[in-house]
Write a structure and sequence with these properties.
The complex is a heterodimer of chains A (190) and B (201). Chain A has 190 residues and is an all-alpha fold. Chain A has nine helices and no strands. Chain B has a two-stranded antiparallel ribbon with strand order 1-2. In chain B, strand 1 and strand 2 form a beta hairpin. The two termini of chain B are 27 Å apart. Classes of the chains: A mainly alpha (190), B mainly alpha (201). At the A-B interface, helix 2, helix 4, helix 7 and helix 9 of A face helix 2, helix 4 and helix 8 of B.
Chain lengths: 190, 201
């Protein structure tokens, strides 16, 4: 039950993009059409779950025993950058199909702040390993949901007749605002 | 000649290549922390510090770093300065630190910092890099402060924490949708002004 609450609250109520403002860059940058948006979402789900497990283990078996928890930021970003490289190499060898689908998005993920953000949030919330994994799944699915919905809205926006100065980013941001308002409707669900 | 160049390095980040309004970099903290003007300034100052210091450090060591590992090396340098900021803010401004929370460690993955390191500091002198960092930092701070002021004014009818009218504002501007819509309209106004200018002159 507790796990279900984590999933629902991370996907709908505290959606990582629309309520917590993490991962805005890919949200605006890679949302021009739905298939790329879903590809990016898939890559984020994949990397976020693995990186959360890795950083959790690093935190509890390396940083805390050595009493160097203040090195958190430096260590995490290195772990994530390293992990993204490894995932890229492994995927290329093991599953060329999956690599084809996710490959181009992987390098972008190192600087996606959702990954580092979730890794730090997990530690701040004192989750255990299973809760952390659930939290990572919920957040990355929430990211995918937000970016997929947003990209389908933006595809419609391209055909709309807007004043010149509203085209592109301003219109996209206002659409995002309305989408985020819709997600506020989920507040109080849990 | 040299002096005008330095001036340009500094001014570039404030207007022509303003990181938020023109380059659209670093949107996460821009939207996430600007529910009040004070938060905007705090976040801007922290980012500006990291920008200046990492630009300086990278410009100084750029000849020693092999080209292939330069991005990881830059990230480590940036992360080190972010940790410095984190520790300083925990010690001296605990209240602000609480407000900004997660967004302080996330300066590491702010595209502005790595972007300037790669685009400017890795191929310019230390002094020019510091000016560039300072200009970008000031531009970022101004943008955040402007956004924070508008949201605070509309959302709670106050400016820098001082209540102007004893009434409730439009709460939605403090919440998430307000951030998106305010930034959207600011960028629209900027584009409109830019499009209009050539016609006048």
């Amino acid at each position: 039950m507790e796990y279900l609450v984590i999933i629902i609250s991370t996907i709908f109520i505290n959606n990582i993009v629309l309520a917590k403002f993490l991962g805005i860059c890919p949200f605006l940058g890679v949302s021009k059409n739905t298939s790329t948006a879903v590809g990016m979402g898939g890559a984020v789900i994949f990397v976020m779950v693995i990186s959360t497990i890795m950083t959790y283990l690093v935190q509890h078996y390396i940083l805390i025993p050595l009493d160097i928890a203040y090195m958190q930021t430096v260590t995490y970003i290195l772990v994530i950058a390293f992990l993204v490289q490894v995932v890229e190499i492994v995927l290329k060898k093991v599953s060329p199909d999956l690599y084809q689908a996710l490959g181009v998005y992987l390098p972008l993920i190192t600087t996606n702040c959702t990954i580092l953000g979730v890794a730090i949030l997990v530690i701040q919330n004192n989750f255990n390993l299973l809760e952390s994994v659930i939290f990572a799944i919920g957040n990355s699915v929430g990211f995918t949901l937000a970016i997929a919905l947003f990209s389908s809205l933006r595809e419609q926006l391209d055909t709309a007749d807007l004043p010149e100065y509203m085209q592109g980013i301003p219109a996209a941001l206002i659409t995002a605002s309305i989408l985020s308002m819709a997600f506020m409707g989920f507040a109080g669900l849990v | 000649m040299a002096t005008t160049n330095y001036k340009e390095n500094f001014l570039n980040g404030i207007i022509k290549e303003n990181p938020v309004f023109v380059l659209l970099l670093g949107c996460c903290p821009t939207l996430g922390v600007t529910s009040s003007a004070i938060n905007g300034i705090g976040m801007g100052a922290a980012t500006a510090f990291v920008l200046v210091m990492s630009n300086l450090a990278i410009a100084l060591v750029k000849n020693v770093i092999p080209d292939k590992v330069r991005i990881p090396a830059f990230i480590v340098i940036i992360a080190a300065f972010v940790t410095v900021v984190q520790l300083l803010m925990e010690a001296y401004t605990p209240a602000l630190n609480e407000q900004l929370g997660l967004f302080i460690p996330l300066i590491v993955v702010n595209c502005i910092v790595l972007g300037r390191a790669e685009a400017f500091a890795s191929r310019n002198t230390a002094f020019a890099s510091v000016l560039d960092g300072l200009g970008m930092g000031v531009g970022f701070t101004l943008a955040l402060t402007l956004l924070g002021t508008i949201r605070e004014l509309l959302g709670s009818l106050s400016v820098f924490g001082v209540k102007l009218v004893e009434a409730d504002g439009m709460l939605v501007f403090i919440l998430a949708p307000g951030a998106f819509i305010t930034l959207g309209f600011i960028i629209a106004v900027m584009t409109w002004l830019k499009k209009r200018k050539p016609a006048h002159s």
